[in-house]
Amino acid sequence: MIRPFARPIPLVILLACVTLIPVMIASIRVAQIPTGQLPEESLRLSGAPFAHWLHSLAGALFGFLGPMQFARALHARFGRLHRVAGRIFVVAGMVMGLSGLGLLLQVESIATPLLDIARTVFSVALVATLLLGLSAARAGNRAAHQSFMIRAYAVGMGGATVALVMLPMYLIIGEPVTGVSSDMVFIGWWLIMIALGEWIIKVNSSRKLVT
Ligand code: HEM
After folding, report:
1. Residue 187 to residues 42, 121, 135, 194: CA-CA distances in angstroms?
2. According to DSSP H, which parts of the chain are helical?
3. What is the pLDDT of residues 128-142, one digit of tens each?
4. Which residues form the pocket of ligand 1, taking CB atoms under 6 Å from any ligand atom?
5. Residues 6+ apart with CB under 8 A from 44
6. Do you find a cis peptide bond into 67, omega within 30 degrees of 0?
7. What phi and psi values does residue 53 have, to the nearest 5 degrees?
């Protein structure tokens, strides 16, 4: 029987490894933006420094706290820490979604409208699922709370982890995927991550694999 998120690989370690690259890049940007040390490929975002910095900070917090929040041990033994970290996670996710919209509005896009529309939809979906998860927690509906938070995490990290597919593609093809093809891969990967989240919600509701 396949037991994808059961021990010996705790979910927290698996998620932290899979999301390491975007969380590290976001953390580095938090220091680079105010000190004016952005790499060349990110200079175009310096037209919206505040949204760029907020988005990076919120992305780093969201990505760092997400795996911890899904750790069963933390929730069971340190309930207060789970609640405090959960509030920061929700605020970070909302700031990330809203500042993502801010970047879309303020910076000239190098993507196709297809990806920009997808980013807009996913930003709104992220804010909505976080609010629904928060309201379920307040109403004491633990099952709905868990489902919405898993959904929010999948929506938030889906696009950020696209390097996991772009890098192998680059190594196979020998050149970076660009233009419409790149944006299709981006959106396809994002949707696969959301579908994976839905699958985890389904399995979790019957076998309690998460939290
Ligand atoms: C719903 C989720 C998200 C949306 C809609 C979103 C949207 C965006 C947009 C529109 C940009 C500007 C891209 C460009 O024009 O080149 C951007 C950049 C960025 N995003 Fe996100 N993002 C999301 C999630 C995340 C997450 C989870 C992280 C980190 C863990 C993250 C970290 C970053 C960073 C660091 C940049 C700046 C990249 C650079 O400086 O080169 N984002 N995001």
Report:
1. 21, 11, 29, 11
2. 11-18, 20-35, 49-69, 72-77, 79-106, 113-138, 142-160, 163-173, 179-207
3. 999 999 999 999 999
4. 22-23, 25-26, 29, 42, 45, 55-56, 59, 62-63, 96-97, 100, 103-104, 107, 109, 119, 122-123, 126, 155-157, 159-160
5. 107, 108, 110
6. no
7. -70, -45
Tokens matching residue 63: 């990505």
The whole-angstrom separation of Cα 186 and Cα 112 is: 11
Is 8 strand, coil or helix?
Answer: coil
d(CA 68, CA 74): 7
36-81 pLDDT, tens digit per residue, is 999 999 999 999 999 999 999 999 999 999 999 988 777 778 889 9
Return the domain boundaries, the chain. Answer: 11-207
Report whether 103 contacts 48 (CB < 8 A): yes
